[in-house]
Every structure is written in C-alpha cells, then in structure tokens.
Amino acid sequence: MVTVADVIAVLEKAYPPELAEAWDAVGLVCGDPDDPVTRVLICIDPVESTVDEALGLGAQLVVAHHPLFLRGVHGVSAQTPKGRLVQRLVRANSALFCAHTNADSADPGVSDALAAALGLTVVGPLAGTGDGRTGIGRIGELPGVETFAEFVERVGAALPATAAGVRASGDPDRLVRRVAVSGGAGDGYLDAASHAGVDVYVTADLRHHPAAEHLADPGRPALVDVAHWASEWPWCEQAAAILRAGLDGNVDITVSTRRTDPWTVASVPGLTGRMPG
C-alpha cells in the first residue's frame, strides 16, 4: 500500500524542501501522511477547478506547484475561498502537497521542463546556487539558429494556449540560438540574462518599466513574455514522470487539464480598439 508519506518522500527527494526560499510555504498543507493513495492529481494552482477535478477523479492527493497559503492564517473557515478548499479536501480524505521554489531551483526543476518544451539543450542555471545546475532559471541552446520571429512562433506552439497568448519584443529578423528561460515571474533576472550573453529571455509577468529599461540597451537579449501558468505547466509532466518512476507505477498519476491562468479575455489594440489621437 502506497501512502501519502510515500509520495511525499519521492517528491522531496526530487525537490528538496531546503531549496525553498525562506518566505515560501512548501510541503503538506492538509491530509494524513498515513492515508493510502491510489490516485494523484498534479496541477499548478490549488484552486476550485483543480480541486473539482481531483475529487471528480477520486484522487487522494493533490500535488500543486503554487502554495495555497503564503501568509499566516488564523483559521480555515469555509467562509473564505481558501478555507472552503481545505474543507472540501478534508471531507473527501484528499491531501494537498505543494512544491514551489524548491521545484524552481531543483535539478531538474520547473525551468528544465520549460526548456525541454521549447526544444532547448540546457547548459546551466541562469542564477545558480554554486551546486551544479541547481538554481533559478536555465540557459539553453536551440538545435540551430533561427530568427526571433520563428522563435516566438516556437514558444507559442510549445506552451498551452492562454487568452493573452505570447508577447515579445525584439527585431523579428534577429538571429537567436542561445536562450535563457525562467518559469514564473522572472523580471528579477533580466540582468542575469544579459550577463549570460543570451540572445533571448523567456519568462512570465514582465512589468512595463523593468522591461522598457532592459530594452533601452540594444545589446541586451530580446524578450518573450508568456502567461505565468503556461510557463510552469510543463513541470506537471516532469513531476508526474518522477512519481511514476519513484512509485513503480503503483499509483495512477494524472496531470490536470484545467487551464487556471486567471486571465480569460483579451483584446488586441489596433484590431479591436483604437489608438488615441
């Protein structure tokens, strides 16, 4: 019989909790480590739709990338959205486990999965910890040189579709080969990407001012900005493969099919709107 504790042991070997940032909240959120597990759902966000999916499948454990709680709470009353999720999971005897920044930094981790989805061969971390490839982000190389426009199309085809799609900034004819990626919010690593000498940097949640300041220097990498959820979703398959191997196929592992990106509607200026003046 496989237990919640057995699944956690496999996950924490792959994504050591000591790699998590000090502010992070990783590990078992709710559930009994001694409970048996026959089915696991892996997702990015522990939200209502993924809990619906897990309970519909009869999963006894939900493995999520994003934590349910990042700030201290004084209760899990069903009067709050997050409290309701905990209550639903507990009533269904389903546990919740989160692997966040420890999965970001692990080798392989979130950015390795993103790099693989884009067809990159990883050569090292973007911001390493001094221990092999452990660290945030990855630097990789394409199989051959292609234009920036072609690369942007590659990104769009490789990641799950979202309402906002893929945004990019750079010369469409620029030739690219060396690429930096960072799953999740990555504008804190713009300088690291520049210092790495890459041709393009792929990440999520790029903000206006940091991106504009970065692009003001023509020698810096072109930018590709994708949805936060989409940039991390390839990790789900990585975690699923780790669990299938570590549990010898004795547990059914399902990757969530629910799109939990919070943005659901988009309008393209110039096509559906008008420029001022």
Automatic annotation (TrEMBL):
InterPro entries according to UniProt: DUF34/NIF3 (IPR002678), DUF34/NIF3_sf (IPR036069)
Entry-linked Gene3D superfamilies: NIF3 (NGG1p interacting factor 3)-like
SUPFAM superfamilies associated with the record: NIF3 (NGG1p interacting factor 3)-like
Transmembrane segments: none
rRNA-binding as UniProt keyword: no
Keywords tagged on the record: Metal-binding
GO molecular function, one term: metal ion binding
Binding site for a divalent metal cation: 65-66, 104, 228, 232
A cellular component term, taken from the record's GO annotations: cytoplasm
UniProt KW Metal-binding keyword: yes
Family listed: Belongs to the GTP cyclohydrolase I type 2/NIF3 family.
Subunit comment: Homohexamer.
Protein name: GTP cyclohydrolase 1 type 2 homolog
Gene source species: Actinophytocola xinjiangensis
